[in-house]
Amino acid sequence: MSFQTADLYDDNIGKVEVCLPLFKSYGKKSKFSGKIYTIKCHEDNTLVGDTLRSVNGKGKVLVIDGGGSLRGALIGDKIASAAIKNEWEGVIVYGCIRDSTDINQMQIGIRALNTNPTKTVKRNTGIINETVNFANVTFRPGDYVYVDEDGILVSPTPLV
Fold it and tell me: 5-13+22-155 falls under which CATH superfamily?
């Protein structure tokens, strides 16, 4: 996969949305892209774990709207391992992760607001594949997201 978000932006001004630079990079993959698949959940990672363990993610990026909560982690090393096993291209978390030292040794790309060692509660709440909005961007299931060292772009059509 060869792209630079800066070049994609320059070639598609007015056609793409750009996330505010809020996210930190985790995992060994600094660049990833794919069709958007969303989960909206608040301090409950049940659907995140279930999705990354059971859905084949080939060509997809999981976008998790955790409401920006910093009170608990929505992804840890076990869930990240499941994402790798099920071929997810990457994950964007509007919230926290944990086990960052282990995740940073894994062949996965994750963007998250921060880390927190706290687990979330398991209430089995949330919504799958609905439009979510955070970081000044609207993430629509089926649209495309491009992530590299410079940032995160969203497009309604494939750019590469």
Answer: Ribonuclease E inhibitor RraA/RraA-like (3.50.30.40)
